[in-house]
Each structure stands twice: as structure tokens, then as C-alpha cells.
Amino acid sequence: MPEESHITASALETMALGERLSAALSPQKLVVLSGNLGAGKTTLVKGIVEGFKAAPSAQVTSPTFTLIHEYRSPKIDIYHIDLYRIQTLRELETLGLDDLLGERSLLLIEWGEKFERFRRECDVEISLQSMGDDRRRISIRSRDKER
Questions:
Q1: Among 29, 65, 95, 122, fewest CB within 10 Å belongs to which?
Q2: What pLDDT is attached to residue 145?
Q3: Distance between CA atoms of 74 and 81, rounded to whole angstroms?
Q4: Could you say which of 3.40.50.800, 2.60.40.420, 3.40.50.300, 3.40.228.10 is the CATH number of the domain covering 4-132?
């Protein structure tokens, strides 16, 4: 997946982009989603989860308070992680995110850019920027690296 940029004009278009994006996000990937509050990160995740048929979009909610939501399908385990309230490396370590990594795993980490480790280890970076109303600029950058 080369670097690409998209403009969506509604939540439905953002979810549809997520659904299309799921085809390029094979398991054992770590994806960092960045953007201000309300930028559409969870909306994009709704489409990704639905694209993998792991859950209907209506069941995908922000893990701001629970920190991790898990969605499973016969082929993939998706972990939707929100690090907004995590401030220190010690707090991060208590989440046990390394235990979630596996051959069937896709980790979608909101606010992962707060920690250098995820900037370094991510396979895909997705940046969302609100452009007013329901319009969003969504930039996707795949990173070639060895884990």
C-alpha cells in the first residue's frame, strides 16, 4: 500500500474507506491512527472492522474508557486500542499490548503517536484531519520495516 490521501465528506464515506482499507491490512499488523478528538478515528475503525466481518459497525465504539476493544472473525483478531488517557510508559506496560501481537492480530491504536515505540514499530500510519462539517482528510502511509 503506497502513501495515499483521501477526502471523505461524511461518516458513511469514512466508514466505506475503512472497509476498502481492510483489504490491505492483513493480520500481524500494527496501525497507528492519529488526529484530534473528533477527527474520525473510531469511525474509520468501524469500517475496517466491518470490512473483516468481525462485527457490524454499530457494535464498534470508542475504547476511550475501557482502553481496548476486541473483535474476532474466523480469520482475524482485531484489537482497537485507545491511548488517549495513557500518559506514562509504566501505564502503557500495564496494558500488556505485546501479548496481543500474533499471527492473526491487527492492532489499531488511536493516539499511538504519543509513544515513540509505536511510531517506530507501526506498519501503517493513518492520519485524520477534520476539514470542517463532516469532511476529513485521511492520509495513509505504509512503512517498510523489519520487526
A1: 65
A2: 55
A3: 20
A4: 3.40.50.300
